[in-house]
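Quick start: read one record
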Amino acid sequence: MLEHPKRGRRLRQAPTSAFASSLSLHFGTGHQYPPTLTPTLVLVPAHRDNFDAQTKALLARRAGDRCSKPDCRAPTSGPSLLPAGAINLGVAGHITAAALGRPRYDPSLTAPQRRCIDNGLWLCQVCGKLVDSDVSRFTADELRQWRAAAEAAASRELGKPVGARSHFAILEHTLTGHTNYIWDVVVTPDGRRAISASNDRTAALWDLANDLRLCVYRGAETEVCSVAISADGGRVAGGCLNGDVLVWAVHRPEPLVRFSHGASDAKVAWLGGSIISGGQDGYLRLWTNDRLRQEDLVHEAAILKVAPLGSGAIATASEDTTIRVWALRDRRQLRKFTGHCGGVNSVAIADGVQGRCEWFNGRHRSGLGSRSWPPGACFRGSQRSRVAGRGGC
């Protein structure tokens, strides 16, 4: 309680909120404000456990002075027009809030824990505003993942020329339009277009140079999990989760032909004018349009990828942890590759050039690994090829 300086009347102090304290002056009924005292409202900011300057600078350096949001990574510092000046566009954001009532506040943390560098990440000002404006989307766990990935990227890039920072590829295009997972992508023979297969029950044709979706292939009743383009670039085959195989003309959305592989999760490839399909039953089947010409049991478990090698040979990757090369004409196995300890999701072959190889992916409980075989371990005589792989081992 407070007292009026002259009349001795007691004044009441309003309760203090979590964010600001206010002082309100009240007088009894029938009294007017004395001329010497004007009511005032004093706002005091709520307490914040802010980072100190040293912590902010360290967060920026650990992120390489770049925004930690994975699809941003914008530089956050640079020179100003003044010869001795610099501009900073970065902010040290709190993963869990610095004050009660702010985004992602964690009441179990102490004040030193909120101020600790472990509770921070470096962002540009735009992304800093974004993560605090959409709390349900940007959780504390996701922000911790951003920070870990940004610091890992900064560590990899440290001391390396810009062109040497990516060991495999530099991102040139991002194509969007599917509404669910994309399971397979192939590129047309001329390298100008790509075709994708998606869980949204469509396949799509893309213009790579202009980032345009040219055609959406419809008609699938379940997820499309495999696609292939014919050698002349005129037809697209798609394999579906329910075992259906669909064939489209490259610029037409509705299928020309539909038939069933005979088991679920159909994988497809072209061999000349015919289609090769594999599936959960471990069989390879050869089709001309929708007419079955040949079938062979190749694996003891599901076939997860079919890759034509020329001269009637087919490479298959399987859930049984093997890659096998099969001669369709002779209906016999040419090679069997072992070494993975988990199912092998994909296989590809690169020919001719020493040291060049394509990757196939395998997954196991322990995660992703890689395995390769030398040219002499592959198949055929004059056509030297290399097989390389990724699998859980």
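Residues 140-157 form the longest helix (18 residues).
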